């Protein structure tokens, strides 16, 4: 295909992606209220527990605040709903240039990364109420706690994204191993760095005073790292056996002798 043909194809696929995102935003617009109701439930529970329904609540500080937040949420949720379409369009554009082996690895990477990302997002959503309730305990008696809706939404979204991305990082380690960039032993030897990173991410995603949530998230991230390192070592062993068999078949080494 000529350069002009590639540009035309890229334009057409971009328009398809754009149309899918717009449709996703329209659908997401009607999902923003249930989503906002879900993430603000801890605030209502705090208000009910303290008996101060009018002193603990999420508020909009500008006239257009509610509408602006709906648009932001519609874009984020719509982008997620349209993900199968725009991911496929990007994939279909670059797929002709990939070898069969690269395509197989890419499909495996996506099959592992997508569920892990959503598992991380779910974990962040489950951890968030504990964080909100814990922080509310520092509000002195006789004072009010009003949360800006936009800031509250940003906090919830960033928390879910941070944990979601953290869950996907081990998959990148396996991808680097398959690409020959890092061996399984090298990944395993970096366990100290992995522990530091896991503790740092968990500390960012959870308040320092919530030790249980921090330790739980740290443990999950370390287990995922160990799983990635172990899987990479298994891949290395299988790769070494395959290379040994190739050398035996070519007559360069005898069967059973080290390569």
From TrEMBL:
Top-level taxon of the source organism: Bacteria
Intracellular or extracellular location(s): Cell membrane; Membrane
Membrane topology: Multi-pass membrane protein
UniProt main location, coarse: membrane
Pfam families reported for this sequence: TatC
Transmembrane segments: 12-31, 75-95, 107-128, 155-179, 191-209, 215-235
Entry-linked InterPro entries: TatC
Keywords: Cell membrane, Membrane, Protein transport, Translocation, Transmembrane, Transmembrane helix, Transport
Family: Belongs to the TatC family.
Function according to Swiss-Prot or TrEMBL: Part of the twin-arginine translocation (Tat) system that transports large folded proteins containing a characteristic twin-arginine motif in their signal peptide across membranes. Together with TatB, TatC is part of a receptor directly interacting with Tat signal peptides.
Subunit structure: The Tat system comprises two distinct complexes: a TatABC complex, containing multiple copies of TatA, TatB and TatC subunits, and a separate TatA complex, containing only TatA subunits. Substrates initially bind to the TatABC complex, which probably triggers association of the separate TatA complex to form the active translocon.
Name of the protein this chain belongs to: Sec-independent protein translocase protein TatC
Organism per entry: Microbacterium dauci
């Amino acid at each position: 295909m000529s350069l002009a043909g590639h540009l035309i194809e890229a334009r057409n696929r971009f328009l398809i992606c754009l149309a899918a995102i717009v449709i996703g935003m329209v659908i997401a617009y009607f999902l923003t209220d249930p989503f906002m109701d879900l993430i603000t439930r801890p605030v209502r529970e705090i208000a009910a527990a303290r008996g101060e329904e009018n002193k603990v609540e999420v508020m909009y500080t500008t006239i257009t605040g509610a509408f602006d937040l709906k648009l932001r949420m519609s874009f984020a949720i719509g982008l997620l709903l349209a993900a199968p379409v725009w991911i496929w369009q990007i994939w279909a554009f670059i797929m002709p240039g990939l070898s069969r082996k690269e395509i197989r690895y890419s499909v495996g990477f996506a099959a592992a990364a997508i569920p892990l990302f959503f598992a991380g997002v779910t974990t962040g959503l489950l951890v968030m109420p504990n964080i909100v309730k814990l922080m509310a305990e520092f509000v002195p008696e006789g004072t009010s706690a009003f949360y800006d809706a936009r800031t509250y939404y940003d906090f919830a979204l960033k928390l879910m994204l941070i944990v979601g991305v953290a869950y996907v990082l081990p998959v990148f380690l396996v991808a680097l191993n398959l690409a020959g960039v890092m061996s399984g032993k090298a990944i395993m030897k970096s366990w100290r760095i992995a522990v530091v990173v896991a503790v740092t991410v968990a500390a960012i995603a959870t308040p320092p005073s919530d030790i249980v949530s921090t330790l739980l998230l740290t443990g999950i991230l370390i287990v995922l790292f160990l799983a990635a390192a172990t899987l990479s070592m298994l891949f290395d062993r299988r790769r070494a056996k395959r290379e040994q068999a190739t050398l035996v078949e070519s007559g360069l080494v005898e069967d059973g002798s080290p390569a």
